[in-house]
Amino acid sequence: MQVKLFYTLALWAPILVSAQLSGSVGPLVDFKTKAKNKTCDITDYGAVADGKTDVGPAILDAWGNCSTGGLIYVPPGTYSLATDLELKHGESTAFQLDGVLARGHEGSYQLILVRNCHDCEFFSGNSQGVVQGYGYEYLQDGNYGERLFRFQDVSDFSVHGFAAIDSPAYYLVFDTVSNGEIYNLLVRGIADLGMTDAFDIWGQNVWVHDIEVTNGDECVTVKSPASDFLIENIYCNLSGGTAIGSLGTGTNISNIHYRNLYMNQADACYLKTHNGDGIVKNIVWENVIVHGGPYPLAVNEAWGKDVGSTGVQVQNLTFRDVPCYDITLDNVNLWTEDGDYVEWSCANAYGSGACLQEAKDTGDLATYTTAVTVTATPYVQP
Fold first, then answer.
1. Which of 11, 198, 267, 278 is disulfide-compatible with 295, CB 3.0–4.6 A?
2. Rhamnogalacturonase A/B/Epimerase-like pectate lyase domain: which residues (predicted)?
3. How far apart are CA 5 and CA 91, in angstroms?
C-alpha cells in the first residue's frame, strides 16, 4: 500500500516558536562575545590540515585553554581526527568548526563527546564544517563502529550549521539536555541500514528545526524522558522518519509538537514501544507530507522485543492537517476480546474499505469523521 499525505505550508510568525517550549533556548552569551574574550585557533596548538596528522591533541589543548568563556576555532581545511574527543566542563564556550574533521581511527563509543557543558555552542561559521565518519568502511561488511557525536548533560546550548556524513553508527545523540536549539544541520549516509539514527534526543525544552536527513534509520526521534519539544521543518529521505521511541519501562514523555514534516520514503507519525510502562501524553503531529512511507501514522505497542510489562499509557495524541488518500483496507478486521461490538472510526483519510471515504478530488480534500459500529467480527478463518 502506498500512502500519500499532503499539507499546505504557511509562514509562521515568530510567536509560534514557543508552541510547545517551556522557556527560552540557546546560549546565554553569543559566540562573538566569547571570541572577543579569547579565541583558541587549533593551528596554534599544532593542528595541521594535511588529512593525516591527528588533530585530536591540538583540539584538546585548545579546549583546555578556551572552554571557559572562549571560542575554539577549527579553520578551513581537512583534518584527521584519530583521537576520541571528550570535551567536558565547558562554561560559556563555543566551538566553531569551519573545516572538515575526518575520522582517522577505529574508536570505541563516540568520536566527539561534549558533556557537562553550560551556555555552549557547537557550530560552523561558514556553513562548510563537516564531520566525516567514513562509515562505509564498517557498514559495507555489516559491521558498526562508533557514533559521531554525543552531547550529554548540556544546557542552554545550540548546535547548528554543519554536516555529519557517513557515520559508522548513530550520528548525533542528545542525552539529558535542556534549553537547546538544534538547527540548520545536514545528515547524510547509507540509506538502507538500521542503527544509523540521525538525531536521538531526550531532555527538556528543546527546539529542533530546519534539518535534512538521508540515512537508513530514524530521522529525528524523541526518546524517554522528554518534555516540551518543538520539532519543525524537518526533511527526511529514505529513513525511519520522525518517531517517538522505541520505549521500554519507566517511559515519561509529554508535550511534544512535530510540525511541517516532509517525508520521502520515511515515516512521519510513529510511536513505538516494547510493551514497557509509563506514559506518553500531549503529542501533536501537524502539517505533514509523506511519499511512499510504510507507516505514515502508527501507534505500535508491540514493537521489537517484549519487555513483559503492563504497556505504556498513551494519552492525547493529535494528528492535525494530515489528510491522506489512496489507502486500501483489504481484509482488515478489528475486534474486541471482551465485548460484543466495536466502533471503527475514520477521519480525514480517503480510499476504500472499512469506514474510509472515496477521494473525488485529491486537490481539494475536506476533513471528515465517520464512525461504524460493528456487532460481529467480520473475520472469516481461511
1. 267
2. 42-88
3. 44
